[in-house]
Amino acid sequence: MIGAVGKHIELPGERVRMVASAGNTNNDDTTTKSSGGKWRTYTLTAVGLAVVCGAAVVVGQFSRASEATAFEAPSGAVGTSDATKLALPVKPTVPVTLTVYEDPRSPRSRDFAQQYAATFSQLLASGQAQVEYRLVTQSDQQYGGTGAKEAAAAAACAQDQGRFPEFMDELWKRQPAPQTDGLKDPKLLKAIAKKAGKIQHDTFDLCLDRNQRQGWVKKSQEDYAASGLGPVPVVQINGQTLADPAKQLTPSKLAALVAKEARQVAAAAPASPAPTATPTP
Predict the structure, then answer these.
(1) Other beta carbons within 10 Å of 191
(2) Cis peptide bond N-terminal to 233, omega within 30
(3) Residues paired with residue 88 on neighbouring β-strands, in sequence order
(4) Distance of CA 146 to the CA centre of its chain
(5) Which residues, in sequence order, are CB contacts of 134 under 8 Å at separation 6+?
(6) What number of other Cβ atoms are within 10 A of residue 134's Cβ?
(7) How much is the pTM?
(8) Are 124 and 97 in contact (CB under 8 A)?
């Protein structure tokens, strides 16, 4: 405890006294008069603040880098295990699963998505099929840059809020020429999210700015590259890959294939046991 005599703390070139009591009126003893001492005090404070701010920046950069490499699947993603939750399903628990591999930067993926949009909507409404989208980034290797990766991560952030289809619809409408790598611009991706509607933008922006889905996008691309499926778009019906959709498939043919598969699944399903009659007393 500090007594009647103040405790002294030494700083270079100056002695600063901590006041023992409020009743001490000896200004000569309790007040530092040197203007040079004040400047030194301010300088030490400024240096301290600079160190703290610099440390905060480093911690923030380290945190974002960690989130960019961590595998964290978006909400609702499905797979055979936690480490392979790479598919984004729409309308699950139906007999036929359509798996669609698409690249946000690829004009071929855009053309396919827009051509088959009505067909997918009809199949979903009929209850015959669910659609699982697999986002890949092959176009980044083809054209250079990171636009596909950034757009895929943004789409995964939209999926966290249940707005993946709406986000992708808006992205296809505004897809820049792949040579420009325009999709790497976060301002464009945030503008697309606003157009998609019903997205909480603070949450979406935080997910995007912190690279929270980059690790998931990387894993999805690695899985696709190892599969040897060929260029996107790729379409599978219950795991069976269809021939080149751009050349050997039409919306009506796809609908017919799904209907055929649904009938086969239904025929192969075990018959439900007949209800047991309850005897009357």
Answers:
(1) 13
(2) yes
(3) 133
(4) 15
(5) 86, 87, 88, 99, 100, 101, 102, 220, 224
(6) 22
(7) 0.69
(8) no
Is the bond preceding 186 in cis, omega lying within 30 degrees of 0?
no
Model pLDDT for residues 230-240, shown as the tens digit of each residue: 999 999 999 99
Per 3-state DSSP, the chain is made up of helix, strand and coil in percentages (nearest 5) of 55, 10, 35
Alpha carbons within 13 angstroms on the beta-carbon side of residue 168 total 26
The pair of structure tokens assigned to 224 is 């696709």
Q: Is 192 helix (H, G, I), strand (E, B) or coil?
A: helix
CA distance 84 to 91: 19
Helical packing angle, 147-159 and 164-173, nearest 10°? 150
129-135 and 96-102 beta bridge pairing = parallel
Encoding tokens for residue 144? 């250079």
Measured CA to CA, the distance from residue 201 to residue 210 in angstroms comes to 14
- Tell me the torsion sign for CA atoms 175, 258, 161, 151: negative
Q: Which of 143, 155, 145 is nearest to 107 (CA)?
A: 143
- Identity of residue 219: K
Token pair recorded at residue 141: 């290797």
- Write out the two tokens for 153: 């991560």
Give the tens place of pLDDT for each residue, 41-60: 544 444 554 555 555 555 56
